[in-house]
Amino acid sequence: MNWDRVEGNWKQAKGKLKEQWGKLTDDDFDVIAGKRDQLSGKIQERYGIAKDAADSQISDWESRAKDEWFVEREPRT
Q1: Contact, 11 vs 34, CB < 8 A?
Q2: How far apart are CA 76 and CA 44, in angstroms?
Q3: Cα angle at 76 between 74 and 77, to 5 degrees?
Q4: Which of 43, 50, 57, 70 is most buried, most CB within 10 Å of its CB?
Q5: 3-state secondary structure at position 71
Q6: Per residue in 22-56, pLDDT tens?
C-alpha cells in the first residue's frame, strides 16, 4: 500500500488509523488531513516517541493495509 492511496481515501483510512492509534483525536485527524508527516508528528506528540519510531509504526501499518479498506461503496438510493 502506498501513502497516495491512503491520502486519496482519507475518510476510509481514518477509521483504520483510529484503531491503530487510539490516542489521536478527531481534531488530530482533521489536522493530519491525509499527510503522512503530520500523522508522524501527532503520533510522536501523543505517544511521546521519537520520529524514527513513529515513522516505523506508520510503515508497519502501511505494510498491513489492505485494498479492501478503501473499496468505494455504492451510494444508497
Answers
A1: no
A2: 39
A3: 125
A4: 43
A5: coil
A6: 999 999 999 999 999 999 999 999 999 999 999 99
Residue 18 has, within 13 A of its CA and on its CB side, a CA count of 12
pTM of the model: 0.83
Angle of helix 51-64 relative to helix 36-47, nearest 10 degrees, comes to 120
d(CA 47, CA 22): 10
Which pairs from 70-74 meet CB under 8 Å and 24+ separation?
70/5, 70/6, 70/9, 70/12, 70/13
Average pLDDT over residues 12-16: 89
